[in-house]
Every structure is written in structure tokens, then in C-alpha cells.
Amino acid sequence: MRRADQRPVRGCRVPAPDGQSGSEHHGDDEGVCLYLDGLSRDLHGDPERARNDQVIRSWLRNNGYEVIEIAVSDLDDPAAMTRHFKRLANLLRRDDVRERLRTDEKWFQGATPSAARASVQRFSLRLVHPAPEERYVGCLPVPRSPATLGAMRALVAEGAGKVSLVELPDPVPGPGEAVVRVRAALTCGTDLEFLERGHPKVPFPVTLGHEFAGEVESVGEGVPFRPGERVTSTVTAPCGACPECRAGRENLCASAFDAPLFGAYAERLLVPARIVRQGLRRVPENVSDGAAALLDPLASVIRGISRLALGSRATVLVAGAGPIALMFTSLLRLQGARVLVLGRRPARVAILSAYGAEALDPAGGIEEQVRAMTDGRGVDAAIDAAGDPELVASLARLVARGGTLLLFSGMSREVVLRIAASRVHYDEVDVIGSFHYRPSDASDALALIASGALPCAALVDGAQPLGAWREAFDRHAAGEGMKTVLLP
Ligand SMILES: [Zn+2]
Ligand SMILES: [Zn+2]
Fold first, then answer.
1. Nearest-CA neighbor of 411 among 429, 430, 386, 438?
2. Could you say which of 93, 101, 305, 425 has the lowest number of CB atoms within 10 Å?
3. 10-residue averages of pLDDT along the chain (488 residues)
4. Partner residues linked to 413 by β-bridges
5. Which ligand sits nearest to residue 299's alpha carbon?
């Protein structure tokens, strides 16, 4: 296990320039500090403040601090900002800060000046105390002795296939942010995918895990949650302003995945302000942590079903037999649909059968079986919850005229499907997709979990301490049981 070599970001007092107020530099183990210019001089054009900044700078330098100055003109200059961030990144040998910096740096290259300014302010708020008028600045203390650190265990992927349990500094919430003590984090195929090939929207290194529930531990300014409250969360927060959001398709919001919430395979998780505002939800008392952590996948399934216009007594084929297929089965059965299931793993198929699905024999002629079970018509809808391109192409043959084929599972970008055009034209088979979920789907998901109508105990049927993450992933990859809850 590796130990990170820095303590959490926090404010740190330096003498007030006028020598009258705010004086001490507390903490005795700090050796080097870093000060991001509070922008007060340039933003306010105030000679008094300029003098103050001079005093603060020389105090910092005389006391062994590194100083990075960001001028206002730099804000409109992506190259200058990139230089600052690089220097900062080199100074900070801390993985989670480096990750944050890389994200900001990349983002800067396409940012408008005003957006860049907002980002720097956000960034500054995160790293330094934002109140120059109080005559003290914030610092990032780098202690001499790593042994004094507050640290937490986290499962970090440094690259595809490179995963290890490391110690990271405890996160500290900035304005609008919350730190959640994770009590339950579920295994999910998305995290497995991360291990194998990464994610186009999330750069390495990344702390894995995104289906979770826990307890609010600390909050920044302006957060409408109190420490001790039990919470779960969506993974993204749509912007609410783009054409997709305005059309009620927030799941397609282009900026929602700019800062997805990952990092639940850790003792603590920092929830960004945008997700605190829109994604974080209180967990009803009667819902266990493991069940509450199902919010994210269940919301996706609810979105998937909302894409289908199913009449009563519809027959639906679900391809796949994992947790997602079990969620589809349960929800469809609740709506009165008949569910046929096509899965490769008999143990999982048996679980789905126990919840009302009729199993097809994957070794036999699938088309013949489906025709025999549907008076020759085919199914009203077929849902791909397996992500196998060959299988998806064959599903198109099983759909009744006027029916729907729903592509639910993600497939890699290179995949091209071969589906007979005659099915789409002459038979009016709709081939549609569904991706992620809207905030309303997430609310419906939590309400459904709380109603007790979902077989949560069957969906989360294994538990391991975080240290046994490998066993949990192996179990997931082998398709044994459904989801394992990791207990950090
Ligand atoms: Zn997931
Ligand atoms: Zn949007």
C-alpha cells in the first residue's frame, strides 16, 4: 500500500499586511506551502490591496513558500494557464489534485475567457481561502512528515488494468461540496470496463466506484445537507440549460459527463457542488445502504422502459441475465408484462426465473422457441442487456411486426450492427436506444426502492470488505450471483 505524501487542503493564516489583524501561521509540521494569488490586486485595481499582496508574497517567500501568481490577463490565455497548472501539478505530487488539475487544464483549452475565469475562481476556492479582504490567504501545506497525514483507503486505477488499493488524503469539502463517508459501494460492469479499457470521458488516474450510499460527514458552505444524513446520488448532474435539457432529455446533456461522480470505492467521497445540488438524495429510513446504492443502475432501467410504448399484456424478451436483466424483469412483471429471458449463465437465469421470467434455452433454436411461445408473432419488444453485437443482430428477428428493439447495453464505438432493412421498413420494427437517465428517473428509482417492490436482496447478494475488491470483481466477471457490495 502506498501512502500519499500530502495532507488535505486547508486554509492557513499569514500575517496581515498592516500588522494588526490575522497573524498566526498555525500547524507546526508544514515545510513548504503554496499560494495561489487571490486575484485581489488585479480584480480590484486597489493600490492598498496591491501593497497587501506584496507583503503577503514576501512573507510567504521568506517563510519557505512557493508562490504561483496568476494574473488576470493570464485567465484569457490558455497557454499561460496551462503553464501555471503544469507547474502546480509538478509541485503537488498528489494524485487526486493532479487529476483535478488535468481536468481543469484540458478544459481550459476550449474555454471562453469568462468560463475560464469562473473555473479559476472555483479552483482557487478549492485550493486557497478566497477572502483577501479578511487579510489572510489560503495555503496548501505540504507537511514534512507523512506519518501525520489524515488518509483514507481508495481503489485507484492508474491506467487500464492497473488497479491498486492506495491511501489518499481525506477529502475536504469546498463551498457547495460534501464529503460522504461511504457505507456501501456496488460492483458494476462499468467499473470492470474501466479496468479493461478506460472511459473516454474520465481520465486516469481515477478512483473507481459509482453506485453507493453513505453518510454525509462534512459539508462546505451553502450545502443543504447536514452531517449524519444518509444519502445516495446520481452519477451526473445535467446543466438544465442546453437544448437537450430543455427538451426533457437531460440524459443526453452534453456537459453532464464533464464531471461524473466516481470514487465510491473509498472510505470517503467528495461530491462536487453541481451533483450536491441536483444528484444527492436523502435515503429513506427503511432503505438499507446496499439497496439505496442501486439508484444509478435502476434509474437507467427505468429510462429504458420509458422508451418502450408497451401495451398491457405485452411480451418482452430480455437478453442477458445479470443485475440489469433482473431489474428489467422485475419492473416489467410489475407492469403486467410477460418476460422471456435469454441468458448464458444457468445460475443467474434461475434467479430471473424465480422472479417471474420464462427462460429460453440458449443452446436450442432461439427463433423457434420464441415463435412457439408467442403464437408465431414474436415479442412486442426485445431488450439488449448483454452488449453482444451478434446477439443484438439476431434479436431483430425475434421482434413482432410493429415491435421494438431496445439497445440498452453499451457497446464499443467501432461496433456496427447488421439488421435487415426489411424488418425496419416493411415490418415497422423500431430500433431504438436508451442511455443513462434523467433526474426524474432517479427520483422514481429511489421511490421504487423504498416501496419494497424491487428484489433488492437478490440484486445485492454478496458483501466484501473493500480490501477484498479483487474477489468481488472476479465474482462479477465470472457472472456468479448478481452485485457484491463493497464495504469500505
Ligand atoms: Zn453502474
Ligand atoms: Zn444540459
1. 386
2. 425
3. 30 36 30 36 44 54 54 61 59 49 43 37 32 30 32 84 82 88 94 75 81 96 95 95 96 88 93 94 96 98 96 94 97 96 94 97 95 97 94 95 96 90 97 97 97 96 92 89 95
4. none
5. 1
Ligand 1 centroid vs 390 CA: distance in angstroms?
Answer: 23
CB of 194 within 8 A of CB of 157? yes
Looking at the CA of 187, name the nearest ligand. 1
Say which ligand is closest to the CA of 252: 2
Contact 213, 279 (CB under 8 A): no
Q: Of 315, 343, 347, which Cα lies nearest the Cα of 475? A: 347
Kindly give the distance from the C-alpha atom of residue 49 to the centroid of ligand 2, in angstroms, as a whole number: 39
CA dist., res. 142 & res. 215, Å (int): 29
Whole-number Å distance between alpha carbons of 361 and 481: 19
By the CB criterion, residues less than 5 angstroms from ion ligand 1 are 188, 190, 211
> For domain 151-296+439-487, which CATH number applies: 3.40.630.30, 3.40.50.150, 3.90.180.10, 3.30.360.10?
3.90.180.10
Ligand nearest to the CA of 438: 2
Nearest ligand by distance to the CA of 249: 2
Distance 304 CA to ligand 2 centre (A): 19
